Amino acid sequence: MSTTQDKPLVATASRASGRDRIIRMQNLWKTYYMGDNEVHALAGISNDFHRGDFWAIMGSSGSGKSTMLNLLGCLDRPSEGIYELEGEDVSQLDDDALSDVRLKRIGFIFQSFNLIAQMTVQENIELPLYYQGWEREASRARAAELADRVGLAQRLDHRPTQLSGGQQQRVAVARALANDPAILLADEPTGNLDTATGVQIMDLLGELHRSGVTIIMVTHEDEIAAHASHQMHMRDGKIERVLS
């Protein structure tokens, strides 16, 4: 790997704040090797995220936004640098430890919903709780509570194929909240929805944000990003600008 002196200038977008810092990224690099060439998907990213923030990460294809989301979600490790989640450095945890962090502390919302077709709404929402070993009665009650929160209390026995796209994404939101995560990560959450349904999902995320949920969302749409309280624009693996 190249030395630090050989690398491009580090982009930093840290914000001083007295609020509770939930994420600290310090000089994060993610480097891939293609033959003899180094590709810097992330090139020295530093930024703080605070509890209760709602961030939109934006940028064109290849800007590094998806790589950043993968690192934040502990789906991948940085090549260099520090990633602290709730004060713990998770940068170089092994696979089992990263899996535990994802299960207990991170909620995911995907563009394609990623629901299990053979399971009911109830069972899809309960899935993270099953892996955490929740008692059946408590798990069912939690799923029912979350289904009601996202407006699907009457759909618990339905399967994903019986739901509209917007309803499926609501199930995905409820499932992401099941473990009461420290952060909610949303990857193009309206990408498979029509405009009106996308607005409904963003209204739901806005309600969650106002209730104190910390959300970090990747999007390429200005209209969607406008729902967030902070925007990070990326280019060539670096932070180009931050709007707050």
Quick recap of the structure?
By secondary structure, the protein is α/β, with parallel strands linked by helices. It is built from 7 helices and 11 strands. It has a single domain, classed as Rossmann fold.
Could you characterize the architecture of this molecule?
The structure is a single chain. With 244 residues, the protein is α/β, with parallel strands linked by helices. Helices cover 32% and strands 28% of the residues. It is built from seven helices and eleven strands. It has helices at 65-72, 95-105, 121-131, 136-149, 165-177, 195-210, 222-225; strands at 11-12, 21-34, 37-50, 54-58, 80-85, 88-89, 106-109, 183-187, 215-218, 230-235, 238-243. The strands form two sheets. Strands 7-8-9-4-10-11 form a six-stranded mixed sheet. A five-stranded mixed sheet has the order 1-3-2-5-6. The longest helix has 16 residues, at 195-210. Mean pLDDT is 90; it is low at 1-18.
Task: Considering the chains and any ligands shown, give keywords for the structure.
disordered N terminus, alpha/beta, globular, 28% strand, 7 helices, five-stranded mixed beta sheet, six-stranded mixed beta sheet
